[in-house]
User: Fold this.
Amino acid sequence: MNHRITRRMILRGLALGVPAVLLGCDRLGSSPSFRQVVLSSGEWLSYRVHRLIGSDALAREYDPSEMSPNFRTNGNTSPRSAKYRLHASEGFANWRLQVGGLVKTPRAFTLAQLRSYPARTQITRHDCVEGWSAIGQWTGIPVKTLLDEVQLQDEARYIVFHCADDFNGRPYYESIDLVDAFHPQTILAYGMNGAELPMGHGAPVRLRVERQLGYKQAKFIMRVEVVASLSGIGQGKGGYWEDVGFYDWYAGI
Ligand SMILES: Nc1nc2c(c(=O)[nH]1)N[C@H]1C(S)=C(S)[C@@H](COP(=O)(O)O)O[C@H]1N2
Ligand SMILES: [Mo]
Assistant:
């Protein structure tokens, strides 16, 4: 078979609804007109492009020498809930990560249990929408490992992370779809820069979903809920900032 792809073939394919990437147009992402026309036009397209050009594409990982000497904290750094404060005072020995919703076997994991699974360590760049970035090393359990343990039901579509903190009484939460949930770099981190995850950065565990912006990286996670729709959670937009701050649910970088 002749593998030469002509412009006409691509146009014909697009007209038929066949993605150009499937026609072998693998330089799509590097064409300036593609970036201007498609990537700048919003969340939905950036979501489609990530899903199309590689649902398994990895976020860049860095060398230890590139780690930021100071990784600042942002947002809440010390949840005030009595329950969280008690857990923290006990070194999270009695904390449990509740995993439920549309799963076959709901479970509660101790921190020691989470640490007993094969861990993933990655050095990545965190990008906050407020305009700062930092490179840090994260160690934790792949979300995939957790979901494999509890087994998703067929209707499962989103994974919601409920946090211990709030802003003016509104709990912080975040959510991701199953493509991101099963992505190899999506982990619940209990370690940072070679040490235990400090409270300011989200102890005992925080989400790292490396192809998205800072506000998706939920800290102080207490409960993981598998749902078919985000409409019943918070104000229905899939996250605290999505509900109150008009941030995009899909914060692809
Ligand atoms: N539970 C919770 N998670 C959160 C936040 C928060 O206030 N509460 N802030 C978010 C924002 S905007 C950013 S940039 C990062 C900051 O992570 P860091 O404190 O480890 O730098 O956490 C995100 N996750
Ligand atoms: Mo942020």
About this structure: Residues 4 and 39 are 26 Å apart (CA to CA). The pocket of molybdenum atom (ligand 2) is lined by residues 74, 128-130, 214-215 (CB under 6 Å). Residues 1-40 have pLDDT under 50 and may be disordered. The longest strand covers residues 132-142.
